[in-house]
Amino acid sequence: xxxxxxxxxxxxxxxxxxxxxxxxxxxxxENYKIAIVQHVDHPSLNQIRDAIEGELNExxxxxEVEISFHNANGDMNLLQTIMQNLVGDEVDMIVPxxxxxxxxxxxxxxxxxxxxxxxxxxxxxxxxxxFSETDKNITGVSNSIPVQDILDLSRVLTPGVKTYxxxxxSSEINSSTGIERxxxxxxxxxxxxxxxxxxxxxDLHQAVSSLVEEVxxxxxxxxxxxxxxxxxxxxxxxxxxxxxxxxxxxxxKDGGFATVxxxxxxxxxxxxxxxxxxxxxxxxxxxxxxxxxxxxxxxxMDAAAALGIVIPEEMKDDFILISN
Length: 324
Hints:
Layout: H1 2-19, E1 32-38, H2 43-58, E2 65-71, H3 76-88, E3 93-97, H4 99-108, E4 114-117, E5 138-142, H5 147-157, E6 163-169, H6 173-188, E7 192-198, H7 204-209, E8 217-220, H8 224-227, H9 230-239, E9 244-246, H10 249-253, E10 258-262, H11 264-279, E11 290-291, E12 295-300, H12 301-307, H13 313-316, E13 320-322
Parallel strand pairs: 1-2, 1-3, 3-4, 4-5, 5-11, 6-7, 6-8, 8-9, 12-13
Antiparallel strand pairs: 10-12
Helix pairs in contact: 2-11, 3-4
């Protein structure tokens, strides 16, 4: 009887100790649960995801967090289900990658901290009031691209360009806002543009084909739909001898010509550092939305060769020069 009583008291003590461990901090005996969510599978988004995980490990959180990965594979109904399940599982933090995923996360919970990555326009997307005002449960790192810098680069590398072809998915906020900035700049500079919109990757061939006789260069911002079909885009543009200026390093790696754009590894690392601050007890209100801190200057030398574009020697030291 004494032995049984001793075992019972020991069990009660263990339960009491576990009950005293507060959730919401990475430094607890129970791993802090972080759910990283994507709405679609794509190399750029996967690069961000891997960089976030790698940065958390570099910051010494590997043994303190339990990271789960979720991908809706382009199914928005499935994305909603994923978010509902995460709320039901009471994860400690949701990390949505890209705008539609962040919007789905915010619609699912007002309590669980949300740290987004790769949302170009969080204000226009309805996630925050402003970059400096995070008074809800959501913050993150924006990947707004320097549109004017990219177009300025195009005028240096291909000075004969008079008409730009703007190719994008108008339903992607990150893309449509980038296109609006491009239009404003081109109009201010007295340059001409033609635009086509797509709703899915299957539309890209016809859209690009409709412009190849009318434009001297293409521009596409960080558009997830177009990025998913870069081989088609590159083939049509190269056959017509037209350079493609893009908003992300991954799109240059996939055959686009040049960018002053997003380095998704750097973006993921910056997001990882914000995640750690909040996991360690930091308040969302004290961690306003950040702009990506560093851009990638990149030229695809294979694309340059195929298009007959010579890169000035004095520029090469300032750019990452890649080959496919």
